[in-house]
């Protein structure tokens, strides 16, 4: 038990000793590509990101999502939901909240250009004058703004693991698009 306790005390010191060298190596690498493994597994959504680092604590990038989930499409067809998102393009600006380059918290603001399918029930009148209801499907596109918080860590000076949670709101087509947009993910990436 004492050995385990001593190991737990020494582990943070060993990580801090390596951090100085990692910060220099990571500062020279300015580009990063990531894949969201959580969205792929849970939502059947392809989510790819690119990030460019500049300055000391700032970075910018974009995220692209494409979705064709059978569960969401079935819920849409059965009437459990009136819209189903199909694509998103999310440019973002990030600020690192921690001083370490190899493990840090960050805050970001993001925009979202998104679109998908929308379904509504409408009332029509036939030639005789009888009213009836039918379902009308259409497409929607919208633009939204939001914010996120996350944590990122690097392994072997290049492999990134990132967890992000963020929410925003669509602004322009709120009668058809989802009210809330989200950025939740567990990303695996490569920095070069």
| Strand fraction | over 45%
Principal-axis shape equals elongated
Total of helices? 3
Distance between the termini: 41 Å
**Unreliable stretches, pLDDT < 50, 5 or more residues?**
13-19
CATH architecture: Beta Barrel
Classified by CATH, the class is Mainly Beta
User: Into how many domains do the coordinates divide?
Assistant: 1
**Largest sheet, order of strands side by side?**
1-2-3-4-5-6-7-8
What class do helices, strands and sheet pairing give?
A: alpha+beta
Tally the beta strands: 8
Give the overall average pLDDT. 88
Write the element-wise H/E pattern from the N-terminal end onward. HEHEEHEEEEE
Write the CATH fold name: Porin
Largest beta sheet, briefly? 8 strands, antiparallel, barrel
Radius of gyration: 22 Å
Please, could you describe this protein's structure?
An eight-stranded antiparallel beta barrel has the order 1-2-3-4-5-6-7-8. It has three helices and eight strands, in the order αβαββαβββββ. By secondary structure, the chain is of the alpha+beta class. The chain has a single domain, classed as Porin.
């Amino acid at each position: 038990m004492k050995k385990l306790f001593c190991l737990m005390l020494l582990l943070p010191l060993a990580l801090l000793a390596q951090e100085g060298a990692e910060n220099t190596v990571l500062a020279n690498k300015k580009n990063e590509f990531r894949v969201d493994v959580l969205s792929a597994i849970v939502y059947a959504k392809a989510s790819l990101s690119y990030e460019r680092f500049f300055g000391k604590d700032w970075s910018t990038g974009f995220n692209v999502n494409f979705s064709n989930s059978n569960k969401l499409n079935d819920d849409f067809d059965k009437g459990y939901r009136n819209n189903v998102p199909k694509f998103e393009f999310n440019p973002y600006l990030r600020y690192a909240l921690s001083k370490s380059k190899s493990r840090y918290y960050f805050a970001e603001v993001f925009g979202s250009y998104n679109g998908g399918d929308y379904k509504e029930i409408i009332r029509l009148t036939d030639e005789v004058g009888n009213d009836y209801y039918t379902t009308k499907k259409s497409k929607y596109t919208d633009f939204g703004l939001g914010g996120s918080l996350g944590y990122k860590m690097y392994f072997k000076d290049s492999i990134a693991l990132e967890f992000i949670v963020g929410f925003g709101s669509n602004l322009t087509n709120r009668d058809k698009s989802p009210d809330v947009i989200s950025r939740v993910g567990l990303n695996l990436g490569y920095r070069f």
